[in-house]
Amino acid sequence: MQPVRIAAASLCRRAGHFRDAAAPKTRRMQKIEHIGIAVKSLETAVPLYEMLLGTTCYKTEQVESEAVSTAFFHTGDTKIELLASTDPEGVIARFIEKKGEGIHHIAFAVADIWAEMKRLKEQGFELLSEEPKEGADNKLVCFLHPRSAHGVLVELCMEKP
After folding, report:
1. What is the DSSP string of 39-81?
2. In this structure, how many other beta carbons lie within 10 angstroms of the beta carbon of residue 121?
3. How, if at all, do strands 154-159 and 139-144 pair?
4. C-beta neighbour count of 90 within 10 angstroms
5. What are the C-alpha distances in Å from 6 to residues 36, 87, 90, 118?
6. Chain centroid to CA 58
7. Which of 4, 112, 139, 144 has the fewest CB atoms within 10 Å around its CB?
8. DSSP 8-state class, residue 156
9. Which of 117, 128, 108 is nearest to 34 (CA)?
10. d(CA 121, CA 139)
11. Cβ atoms of residues 38 and 81 within 8 Å
12. C-alpha span between 145 and 36 (Å, rounded)
C-alpha cells in the first residue's frame, strides 16, 4: 500500500499541487456543500428523490437571476439540489437539451468566497463571473468553467454574511 501513496504524492508534486507549502493551513474548500442535479420537472423529480433518499424536500426556491427553480434535500452532511429551468432558454434548459437530465455541478463550501475566487484565478482557473452572485439557500456563489476542472462545473458557495 505504501508504494501507491508515494507514487501518488510524487505525481501530485510533479503536477505542481504542492507549490502552496507556505500558504496558511486552513482548508479553503471546507466540504462538499451540495450536488446539483438538472431535472426537467420538480413536480416529478421531488417525489422520486424523496423516495430515493428516504427524506423529504426541506426547501424550494426560485432564483430569478438564473431562471431556475430549486428543491433541496439533506443527506448526511451534504445536500442535493434539484434544478429545473423556469425559462426554455435558461442555462438549465440548455444543459438538459445538450446533455440530458443528470448531475449539473458540485458545490464546495468556502469561508471567504472573494479570497477563494482570487486564489483560483491566480492559479489559472477560469471563473464564470468576476463577482459572487446571489444563489439559492442564502448563499453567495461563483462557478468555475468546466474546462478548468476536467469537465466538471464547480461551484463555490458561502453563507451570506
Report:
1. -S-HHHHHHHHHHHHTS---EEEEEGGGTEEEEEEEETTEEEE
2. 15
3. antiparallel
4. 16
5. 34, 50, 46, 31
6. 19
7. 4
8. E
9. 108
10. 20
11. no
12. 15
Burial class (CB in 10 A: 0-12, 13-18, 19+), 28: middle
Q: What is the pLDDT of residues 25-66, one digit of tens each?
A: 566 889 999 999 999 999 999 999 999 999 999 999 999 989
Question: How much is the pLDDT for 21?
Answer: 45
- Asked if 59 contacts 98 with a C-beta cutoff of 8 angstroms, the reply is no
Which residue shows C-alpha cell 450536488?
A: 35
Torsion of CA 91, 96, 102, 108, to 10 degrees: -10
Query: For residues 25 and 5, what is the distance between their CA atoms, to the nearest angstrom?
Result: 21
State pTM to two decimals.
0.83
- pLDDT, tens digit, 9 for 90 and up, residues 85-121: 999 999 999 999 999 999 999 999 999 999 999 999 9
Which residues make beta-bridge pairs with 40?
Answer: none
User: CA 128, 65, 56, 76: dihedral to nearest 10 degrees?
Assistant: 30
Q: Which amino acid is at 139?
A: K
Side chain identity at 16, as an amino acid letter? G
